[in-house]
Amino acid sequence: MGCCSGRCTLAFICGMQLVSVLERQVIDFLGYQWAPILTNFLHIIVVVLGLFGTVQFRPRYVTGYAVWLVVWMTWNVFIICFYLEVGDLSRDSDLVLTFNLSMHRSWWMENGPGCRVTPILPPPSWAPEDHRYISISGCLMDFQFIEVAHSSLQILLALVGFIYACYVVKLISEEEDSFDFIGGFDSYGYQGPQKTSHLQLQPMYIPASLWKQNNHEEGERTQ
Fold first, then answer.
1. Taking the CA atoms of the chain, what radius of gyration do you get in angstroms?
2. Which residues are CB-neighbours of 181 under 8 A, at least 6 positions away?
């Protein structure tokens, strides 16, 4: 019963992670955030494998999922530090999240709650031709705090998922050990039925009269 409830809870957490990271993936695609897009894609694959391992009693998959969650939490801590500009990090850098391929920022920068976007005409001379120069005002929450909230949610889900993943691996291992104890997987404790040969050689006795008759017939054939 404990294993079932633990597996069900972990499966629910994996489902929540998939929903939240898919939403984040769409937002990152709209904002051309290439580094988060690649990381989200890896996270989706690992969560699916972790869900498969949870349902199919595969402790190795669940263990790999737990290890990845540590990496995922580290990445989200970095995202929080990046948007809060901790240390020498700057959220205006194009190299960190977009690989210097575009000048786009977070999608929430222009589409946050209450944000009003006003194009500035004419654009300044230094502005690229394929980009518009805008002014953003009236936002109820700055985009960096929305990104921090998203990363904080991912850290919370990953932390709970890591705890339940370790718990499920422990329960599955205990069930396998108990099954081995009663001989379920013990290759030495179980011996299949051995085939016995029903054909046994028995000595055959020939009467003396029949033996003489056979010798007599063989003598006639040779003559």
1. 37
2. none
DSSP-derived letter for residue 119 is E
Joined tokens for residue 146: 């929305």
The CA-atom distances, in angstroms, between 83 and each of 23, 87, 146, 150, 159 are 19, 11, 10, 12, 21
Q: How far apart are alpha carbons 47 and 216 in whole angstroms?
A: 90
User: Euclidean distance between the first and final Cα of the chain, in Å?
Assistant: 91
CB 154 within 8 A of CB 76: yes
Q: Which two tokens stand for residue 161?
A: 């998922």
Residue ranges for the chain with pLDDT beneath 70: 1-4, 94-95, 99-104, 122-133, 177-223
| pLDDT for res 90 | 82
pTM to 2 decimal places: 0.72
Closest CA to 17 of 148, 114, 162, 144: 162
d(CA 148, CA 95): 19
C-alpha to C-alpha distance for 31 and 104, rounded to whole angstroms: 6
